[in-house]
Amino acid sequence: MDNEKLMQWLNLAKNVYGSEFWETLFDEDFNRSMLKNSYVNHSIHQGIQSFPSYDVIEEDSYVNILIDLPGFDRNDIDLTAHKTMLVVKGSRKSNDLQFYHKGRFYGDFEKNIRLPKPLKENHMQAKMINGVLYIAYAVEEEQGETIPID
């Protein structure tokens, strides 16, 4: 690439990503500044961040969580439950295929889902049906502590 074409490319990149693009290229905050200055990269990053899609539904004594995981097998998913957090990890390999177009997610993901109510220990069930992971857990009844006043 000759210098004239390089300068054209640099100016184009500066116009697309903003004037501070090159100044922050190797900063620790590079990823954040790229996302802030680029609609395309922001959309891509948001897509990865929001995968997988999920719903949390509260009922009286249960909470139900539905997670969309099309194309995943239940053996590809790991669930870890904490008192107020559910961690969903998974992986889908592309097996080094030669893609003409790649629109589905491949790779590893981890999704932390904050639970609306503390879960009752050993009262969680999960089932995978047609690419949707259904999780239900019993809610631990909150018991307030009586505090004496001196």
TrEMBL record:
Residues 45-150 form the SHSP domain. Pfam families: HSP20 (PF00011). Belongs to the small heat shock protein (HSP20) family. This is Hsp20/alpha crystallin family protein. The lineage of its organism: Bacteria, Bacillati, Bacillota, Bacilli, Bacillales.
